[in-house]
Design brief:
RNA-binding; 5-stranded parallel sheet; alpha/beta; 378 residues; 4-stranded parallel sheet; globular; 17 strands
Length: 378
RNA sequence: GGACGGGUGGCCGAGUGGCUAAUGGCAGCAGACUGUAAAUCUGCCGCCCCUUGCGGGCUACGGAGGUUCGAAUCCUCCCCCGUCCA
């Protein structure tokens, strides 16, 4: 069970610092969770993640692991932690995001979602109950309910119907989850429901109020960063978070850019995850304390400096922009490894800075400095 | 000296009378990426002009002539490269 403990609160914003206790360790919040969809964070070893970056919790994906290698296989291999040799905490997404990202390959019905596998075209049905079962087989510390993550934009009418379905699914998932807990004895896994409602404040609030009745150990805000203008994303958190229990962790799913992390925290978010630091690393977009750095730009061709002179990561301690640019242009895999290490380190450093600022009562000041950072380095 | 083959935009390489400023690939330049179908995708990529639209002008397929309404594509000569034979 994930027990949340608030350690400090910001007087001026909704930010707070906390501790999330799980069966696989305690996590300091606010926390950024690297995404390891297929039981791996692309480009990094578990040793990199644990020893160098001190990652305490990772994401993995139910849909992807269900298709390959299969949750039963993972269960037989001793569960996801042992299978991927990651003794720390794991949060599994339910596959709700794939309802959005694989929209051409799925059909939504009240009972659940029918997916056509992107791997071989096989059809599979995901239900609120089955996704709980799969995640219980995986053994993740935090499980997510199956939800519908609608694209943007969508009509109020559709958003409402979709949100209501997501609420029904959450109820079904919880009923099934609690039934299994009662039958199987003590459980170590938590289940978080997900607030939807597209970009409509009334729907967000309505959804949150209904989900709170489930008395979950944590609550997620989903359906963000699906193509909407950035300000809307923040507005939707503002429209949702006040209706979530303050004593439970709040998880904003799938966000955000490095410069946005503190903004979400200021709006009461305790947990975030995003593919950007890892994916953008591979695609040449590096995050620095002085703004973004596009490594392929010709101005870095003979630049002897590290990506970020203020960064203490292995990459920045040892390699120049010129070398990284060369690796990138040459398509060398080491580039992805080094870049991912850096970007993830940057994200984790930001979260540590945020937490420290909150603990010291200086979060508003920190927020101000973050907002003053230019978009691009130099 | 002779016989073949070949010289195309930064490179490789299509194209063998008009739809060709010229397919592709690479390189180059820029952009996108947000609970990962992504080490992916998109745009630009001869020069100049009009803020403009499938717009206009110039230069260009080794060189120089020629045939033709029209040539990178056909003809003539020349130059250069490769292979082979003397």
């Amino acid at each position: 069970m994930a027990r949340f403990e608030v350690v400090a609160e910001c007087g001026a914003t909704r930010a707070r610092a906390g501790l999330l206790h799980t069966a696989h360790g305690t996590i300091e919040t606010p926390v950024f969770m690297p995404v390891g969809t297929q039981a791996t964070v692309k480009g990094l070893t578990q040793r990199d993640l644990a020893e160098e970056l001190d990652v305490r919790i990772l994401l993995a994906n139910t849909y992807h692991l269900f298709l390959r290698p299969g949750h039963d296989l993972i269960r037989r291999m001793g569960g996801l932690h042992r299978f991927m040799s990651w003794p720390r905490a794991i949060l599994t997404d339910s596959g709700g995001y794939q309802v959005f990202s694989l929209s051409d390959l799925r059909k939504i019905e009240d009972a659940g979602v029918t997916f056509q596998s992107h791997l071989d075209g096989d059809r599979h049905v995901f239900t609120p109950e089955s996704t709980v079962d799969v995640q219980m087989a995986l053994g993740s510390d935090v499980m997510m309910v199956l939800d519908e993550c609608p694209e943007y934009p969508v009509s109020h009418e559709y958003a409402r119907a979709s949100m209501e379905r997501t609420v029904r699914w959450a109820r079904s998932a919880f009923a099934h989850y609690r039934g299994r807990l009662a039958k199987d004895g003590t459980g170590t896994q938590s289940l978080f429901p997900i607030v939807q409602g597209s970009m409509f404040a009334d729907l967000r609030r309505g959804c949150a109020e209904q989900l709170v009745e489930l008395d979950a150990e944590g609550y997620a805000i989903g359906g963000l960063s699906v193509g909407e203008p950035r300000p809307l994303s923040f507005e939707m958190v503002e429209a949702t978070e006040p209706f979530l229990p303050r004593e439970r962790p709040h998880y904003a799913m799938g966000v955000g850019m490095a410069e946005e992390l503190a903004e979400y925290v200021a709006r009461g978010v305790d947990m975030m995850d995003c593919v950007l630091p890892s994916r953008n690393a591979r695609n040449g977009y590096l995050f620095t304390s002085q703004g973004r750095l596009i490594i392929k730009h010709t101005r870095y061709k003979e630049d002897p400096r590290p990506i970020d002179e203020n960064c203490g990561c292995y990459t920045c301690r040892n390699y120049s922009r010129a070398y990284l640019r060369h690796l990138y242009q040459a398509g060398e895999m080491l580039y992805a490894v080094l870049a991912t290490r850096h970007n993830l380190r940057r994200y984790l450093d930001i979260m540590r800075e945020i937490r420290q600022a909150i603990l010291l009562g200086q979060f508003p000041k920190y927020l101000k400095t973050v907002r003053a950072v230019p978009v691009e380095v130099e």
